[in-house]
Amino acid sequence: MQTVQDAAALRAAIRGWRAKGQTVGFVPTLGNLHAGHQSLIKLARARTERVVASVFVNPTQFGPNEDFERYPRTLVQDQAALADEDCDLLFAPDVATIYPFGAEHSVSLRVPQITDTLEGAHRPGHFDGVATVVCKLFNLVQPDLAVFGQKDFQQLKVIERMVRDLSLPVKVMAAPTLRAEDGLALSSRNQYLSAAERARAPLIHDTLLKMRELLDQGHPWQALEQTAAARLTRAGFIPDYVVIRRAEDLAEPAEGERGGLIALIAARLGSTRLIDNLLFD
Ligand code: PAF
User: Fold this and answer.
1) In a domain? residue 60
2) Is pTM beyond 0.85 here?
3) pLDDT digits over 92-102, tens only?
């Protein structure tokens, strides 16, 4: 597997593949790769002839009090994990390659409406940073297919909208969330958890399952949100949101609406913020 840092080398490699008529799949990441990321590479690998991954800790999607500085940078291990999945090329740019005028003077994309709620409400500017960097990476890689994890469900929706609204010629594919045996969704941030917190963290997934069970039994979604939030609070979590929404647009469901719903949770456990979701279909 080739690793390139600059845009010209990336474009040259991709030009070579395109000249042979090969298709290109793309998996953008923040690095510190785990089995969840590897499953995204596998999905791309099965669908396109060439696979590119990027590792870039994007400064514009982190808020001032978030973990940009302490986000684990593990490029050597990431290279090995990608090579194991038969990834063809790792693009690992520096900040100046992605933001030639500096991150604070960059063109910034805003995907309206769907970013006003949930993560967007709790992390102001986060999705502007995500949409901006993903659009820049798409412009550089020009993939046929890009794979994103369903764990960041709202991010997936934001990217789908951006791609459609800007008529970008890339197919966005959603990959199922990979979980530890006890149900905790795999995330690079899980390593911030202490042993005691790690033992409690699967309660988030358990709560999502409980919400689904109670909704199936006919309980109204509004009551479920409150019961679930209270359950997490009792166990020492500080929930940012515990909601049931329409999966399509993340709007509140109508009274009695049952189909196409998703439960989403974001909660703090100690100094770690965890997110997860469960589609109810
Ligand atoms: O989900 C992530 O890892 C990041 O938000 C992404 C899509 C790579 C953009 O920086």
Assistant:
1) yes
2) yes
3) 999 999 999 99
Q: Domain range holding 253? A: 188-279
113-169 pLDDT, tens digit per residue, is 999 999 999 999 999 999 999 999 999 999 999 999 999 999 999 999 999 999 999
Looking at the fold, whether 146 and 197 belong to one and the same domain comes out as no
Q: Which of 123, 147, 175 is the last residue of a domain?
A: 175
152 annotated among ligand-binding-site residues = yes
**Same-domain pairing of 194 and 129:** no
Give catalytic status of residue 219 as yes or no: no
List all residues whose CB is within 6 A of at least one atom of ligand 1. Answer: 28-30, 58, 61, 130, 133-134, 152, 155
Radius of gyration (C-alpha) of the chain in whole angstroms: 19
Using the Cα atoms of residue 77, residue 80, residue 84 and residue 88 in order, give the sign of their dihedral. Answer: positive
Q: What single-letter amino acid sits at 43?
A: L
Is 182 part of a structural domain of the chain?
Answer: no
CB 44 within 8 A of CB 26: yes
Q: Which residue puts its alpha carbon closest to atom 3 of ligand 1?
A: 29
Q: 63 and 106, same structural domain?
A: yes
Amino acid residing at 12: A
